[in-house]
Amino acid sequence: MGRSSDAKERLMDAVQELIWHGSYGSTTIDQICDKSGVKKGSFYYFFDSKCDLAAAALDDMWLKKKPEMDAIFSPTTAPLERLKRFCDEGYKRQVELKAHCGTVRGCPLFTLGAEVCNQDQKLHNKIKEILEQYHKYMESAIRDAHAQGIIHAPDAASKARMVFAYGEGLLTQARIVNDLEVLREMHEGIMGILGVQKVTKKAA
Amino acid sequence: MGRSSDAKERLMDAVQELIWHGSYGSTTIDQICDKSGVKKGSFYYFFDSKCDLAAAALDDMWLKKKPEMDAIFSPTTAPLERLKRFCDEGYKRQVELKAHCGTVRGCPLFTLGAEVCNQDQKLHNKIKEILEQYHKYMESAIRDAHAQGIIHAPDAASKARMVFAYGEGLLTQARIVNDLEVLREMHEGIMGILGVQKVTKKAA
DNA sequence: TTCTTTGTTGACCATTTAGTCAAGTTAAGC
DNA sequence: GCTTAACTTGACTAAATGGTCAACAAAGAA
């Protein structure tokens, strides 16, 4: 019934790229339409506003990301190995993104969250929701590591907040200085926060 | 020679508040003029553009902040005490700002830096410059702590990057969830990163 | 074939926005 | 009190922006 269209997807892709490269506030509906090749009339056929589109794009992003995260943080993987893979995969992804566009992206949720938190309730809530999911992955890995006696972290939630803040801070830092190198320290930093003895490869 | 004016200062104050509450991209020149009570003609008498004003406001901010930072990070203070004071003073400032406007501000440099890094070269450079200054304070405190044998941190620069990313991440996190409580963990987190044994008050 | 639902288009409107300017006002210095 | 540099003002323009709409096109269902 009726014709089909991929305009919705094209709009969501476009808004993600534009927000990534610039910012939410500086991205206009006209730009989004130009980039996606969708006419403004069609934009308003699918979405009510820029905010509406951005929220949908975030949902879409998370929908694609979640299975990957579930795999990385599978309870069948050793707790600290989960965190290591998270760092490695995150780094790989940032390399891809930089190759594709020339600049470091960082974490769009964090950057966007800081930008819109006092402006757009709907977007803000969505972002908080997704960030909380990330937090849960960390927390469970840390709790498991503690339970197995690998680290000492009786308050897993607190440690998870630290790891999370550090990781996000580093990603944002990488974006600001446009340099992926700083991200290579992420794993070592997280191990430091968790109080894991440094694994000195040479001396071991 | 000629009349004097505080319009410049009023404009700088206004743009800071507006960027804080909203974002750089969503702040318009008209809003800045309304808030400061300065007419647009006068705006363009003093500044070339929004970017120009924002850059001046950052300079002004840092000019006021620097003496405070120099005091906190005075080499006459014990290294770890400097970091503690930095956390305490930072927290106090955030409390003030929240009382004044109802929302947590976080670090404007970091938030703004992540927003404009691919858009506005001039602002971006200024932000990087100031962030580097902050970094230097951390680094020198950490280096001193290491030299005094209080912590083990042969690579002070690297540790400083970690501490810095963590602190900025936490501030941004506080902004996103609009909750100052998370900032109370900052000192403990930094001590964790530096590998300082937890000072358990009760057991000591 | 024809009907109906779904999606597309370009023209259109009202506001907002950045930016200009000539004429006016104020105060410091002579 | 006069001059002049420093600042102010409001009216203006052009462009960008968000948003609407009626007419049109395509594709599946009857």
Features:
mainly alpha, 204 residues, homodimer, DNA-binding
What does this structure look like?
Two copies of one chain form a homodimer. Chain A is mostly helical and 204 residues long. Helix content of chain A is 70%, strand content 0%. Chain A has nine helices and no strands. Residues 200-204 of chain A have low confidence and may be disordered. Chains A and B meet through helix 6, helix 7, helix 8 and helix 9 of A and helix 6, helix 7, helix 8 and helix 9 of B. The structure holds a DNA duplex (30 and 30 nucleotides).
SS-based structural class of chain A?
mainly alpha
Oligomeric state as shown: homodimer
In whole angstroms, the N-to-C terminal distance of chain A is: 66 Å
The largest contact between protein chains, plus residue counts on each side, is: A-B, 44 and 44 residues
Gyration radius of chain A, to the nearest Å?
19 Å
Question: Spans of chain A with pLDDT under 50 lasting ≥5 residues?
Answer: 200-204
By DSSP, the count of extended strands of chain A is 0
Helix-strand topology string of chain A: HHHHHHHHH
Biggest sheet of chain A, in brief? none
What is the helical fraction of chain A, as a range of percent?
55-70%
Mean pLDDT of chain A: 94
What is the strand content of chain A? under 5%
Q: Write down the overall geometry of chain A.
A: elongated
